[in-house]
Amino acid sequence: MDSIESDRGARFSVRALGYALAACACWGYGTPRAECAAPAARRPNILLAIADDLSFAHVSIAGYPGVRTPAFDRVAREGIWFRNAFSPSPGCSPTRAALLTGRHTWQIEQAGTHASAFPTRYIVYPDLLEQAGYWVGYTGKGWGPGNFQASGRTRNPAGPVFASRKLKPPHSGIGANDYAGNFADFLERRPAGQPFCFWYGATEPHRGYQAGAGLASGKRLADAAPPPFLPDAPTVRSDILDYCLEVEWFDEHLGRMLKLLEKAGELDRTLVIVTSDNGMPFPRAKANLYEFGFHMPLAIRWGDRVPGGRAVDDLVGLVDVTATILDAAGVRHPGPPYPIAGRSFLDVLTSGRQGIVDPTRTAVYAARERHSSSRYQNRGYPQRCLRTPEYLFIRNFRPDRWPAGDPQALRDDGQPGPMHGAYHDIDASPTLKFMVDHRDQPAIGPFFHLAVDKRPAEELFDVRADPGCTNNLAGHPGWAATKARLARQLDDYLRQTGDPRVLDGGEIWESYPRYSPIRSFPPPSE
Fold it and tell me: Which of 84, 137, 293, 423 could form a disulfide with 90 if both were Cys (CB 3.0 to 4.6 A apart)?
């Protein structure tokens, strides 16, 4: 499909733009109005399904034997499977804020960190679609954790909540929210003829898990091979199976939603987008800018508008998903002073091609600030990264800090807890406990140190040869030219897009309030 580049940096397909112009001649930069969108008959419904802590490798179409995801696989087979999709952050709250706004996390102030606020100046795509005549809602986890009321918002940025339907979960750790049932309520209450925009945000496979549930369900340890940065032990494999079981719960509700749309005759009129917010909740994955922390599953289906059976290797980010949703709906982002950063890939969706479709998509960018309350005075671990088809370059702005969190916390009585009893940027889990308990064993120690040790200011990985990101090439003389080139590219992009970390040091990030519990730690000097 032909496309044009707007003067505000967002890319819109000629066809979608034509629909909108046919509907009205009032594209201006003010608040969008319903009459300024494409005609309702031509506008797709939008269903976004977003898992909580799911890495790219753990869907069955990717070949992982320990998991079965028939609904994700169906969307991928009948539409497009994006094999190189990346989240804007390896944490849930900043990723969701970036996806909702279409802006990088360093462009949305406190919304770009964990458990803070969400300024109203940054408009979100559900509001834009609602103003353009869409019926909007969400179930499960919308934006969060955080305090949207602190910024003056009256509802979750994902929209009005649908949460009345409950069920008895099959295992502890799985939520009681009947996601598909709430989607059915949403559809039933939709005004006749109105397109819809729905956010399905599962709380799975976020921890905690019922230990051993995967094995009890009939899964096999042999099917749960750990990624290269985790030790191969029965405890770890069983933990991975418990994670896979919760991935399947997310997928089961997606499958029920697809059937509801089929029954209503709406499936082929719906742009179905399935992804995750960040990677698996294991050491060196979630909350890390390595492959298993921010490389996401992504499948998209849209009837005959998106020719199916294709696997695409273009580099795309979730901020590009935002631009694509608005493009498909024929809704213009208001633009300055807070323009969208993502670039629509509607042309890739409709192209009919696979492999590399748009060779200009040569890089994606991601960031991290604060994740959990894991360091003295609630400090974060600031990172930025650049991912190309071949390489991952990471800049760690505070290499003096512990990347997984301080190793020791203070107890409620103010006394130091056990050494290696903290690391709170890693979710508590049997895997973490196993690694801590066996850190002195030669077979386990290297994995433990990969997860928790301090890291250099620069990291470089050849992701094709080293998808586990265990071999840092940044200090090797033979990679100096590549590192320098990528470092310049990252720095230039961050400056162009106004990142405080490169403009003035970015200490503003340490000032944003946290609305979740804050832990205490010994001062660094101790």
Answer: 293
